[in-house]
C-alpha cells in the first residue's frame, strides 16, 4: 500500500531529470534513460503509473566524468551520493539526492546514509571480448556487489533478515573481506574503459551487446524528450522480455514500503 502521493514524487523526480539532462548537455556527457524510465517512455510516453524512481545510465568514462563534475558543480539543492561521498552507501553506482527531503525504505532506517528523494545513475562498463575472462568479471561483480551491500544488510530492521542475509559474511575474517572487495573490484573494472563488443551494467550484472549504446535517440518522457539508447527495444527485451505486456494488477507496485517526505529531511526518520 502506497502511503504517499506517487504522482507528486514523480513530478519532483522529473524536475531532477531535467536538471541532470541540462548539466550533461552543457558538459558533453552522454547519458541514457534506462530500465523503468526507458520502459515508461516506450510504453507510456512518461512514468509507468506505479513507478516511483528515475533511472539513467552512462558508459564508464562519462560516468567518471559526471561524478567528478558533480563533486564540484552540482547545484546546492542536490547531493551526489556514491561510495566516496557517503562512506556507508552500499551500492556500485551513484545517486543524485535532494537535500532536506526523504525517500527511505523503512527496513533500512538504521543505515546511516543520505536518504533524500533520488534518482539512480548507473555505471555501464566494457567487458572483455574473451568469453572465459568475461564470465570471471561477471562473477567478480557479484562478489563485489555482495560485499558492498553487506553495509545495508547489517542495517536491516528485521533481526531474522539480518542473520539470514549476512551469515556468509560472519564466517569471513575482516582482512579476507577487505582483500576480496579490492580484488573483485579490480577484476570487474579492469576493462571498464576499453571499448569492446560487450558491456555490463554493474547494478544488475546484466551483460549486453555494446552496440545498444553506440548511438542515441530522443524519446518523449512526460513533457520533454531525453536521450535513450538507439536500440532501446533490444535493451528492454534483454532485461524484461515481453516488455509491452502490462504485469498483473497485483504486481503494479512501487519499490517497497518507504517513507516519503517532501518538506523534511530524512534525518527526522532515521533510527
TrEMBL record:
Domain LicD/FKTN/FKRP nucleotidyltransferase: 24-241
GO BP term, pick one: glycoprotein metabolic process
Signal sequence coordinates: none
Origin: domain of life: Bacteria
InterPro entries in alphabetical order: LicD/FKTN/FKRP_NTP_transf, LPS_cholinephosphotransferase
Pfam short name (any one): LicD
Protein name (Swiss-Prot/TrEMBL): LicD family protein
Amino acid at each position: 500500500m502506497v502511503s504517499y502521493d506517487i504522482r507528486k514524487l514523480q513530478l519532483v523526480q522529473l524536475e531532477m531529470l531535467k536538471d541532470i539532462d541540462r548539466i550533461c548537455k552543457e558538459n558533453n556527457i552522454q547519458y541514457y534513460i534506462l530500465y523503468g524510465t526507458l520502459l515508461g517512455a516506450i510504453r507510456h510516453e512518461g512514468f509507468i503509473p506505479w513507478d516511483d524512481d528515475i533511472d539513467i545510465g552512462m558508459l564508464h568514462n562519462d560516468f567518471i566524468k559526471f561524478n567528478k563534475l558533480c563533486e564540484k558543480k552540482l547545484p546546492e539543492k542536490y547531493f551526489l551520493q556514491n561510495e566516496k561521498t557517503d562512506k556507508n552507501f552500499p551500492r556500485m553506482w551513484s545517486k543524485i539526492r535532494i537535500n532536506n527531503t526523504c525517500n527511505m525504505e523503512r527496513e533500512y532506517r538504521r543505515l546511516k546514509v543520505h536518504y533524500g528523494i533520488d534518482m539512480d545513475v548507473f555505471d555501464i562498463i566494457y567487458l572483455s571480448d574473451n568469453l572465459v575472462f568475461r564470465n570471471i568479471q561477471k562473477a567478480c561483480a557479484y562478489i563485489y556487489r555482495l560485499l558492498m551491500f553487506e553495509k545495508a544488510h547489517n542495517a536491516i530492521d528485521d533481526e531474522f533478515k539480518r542473520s539470514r542475509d549476512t551469515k556468509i559474511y560472519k564466517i569471513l575474517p575482516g582482512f579476507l573481506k577487505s582483500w576480496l572487495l579490492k580484488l573483485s573490484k579490480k577484476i570487474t573494472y579492469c576493462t571498464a574503459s576499453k571499448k569492446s563488443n560487450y558491456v555490463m551494467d554493474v547494478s544488475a550484472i546484466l551483460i549486453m551487446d555494446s552496440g545498444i549504446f553506440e548511438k542515441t535517440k530522443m524519446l518523449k518522457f512526460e513533457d520533454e524528450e531525453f536521450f535513450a539508447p538507439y536500440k532501446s527495444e533490444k535493451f528492454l527485451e534483454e532485461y524484461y522480455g515481453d516488455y509491452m505486456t502490462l504485469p498483473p494488477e497485483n504486481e503494479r507496485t512501487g519499490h517497497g514500503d518507504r517513507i516519503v517526505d517532501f518538506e523534511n529531511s530524512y534525518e527526522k526518520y532515521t533510527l
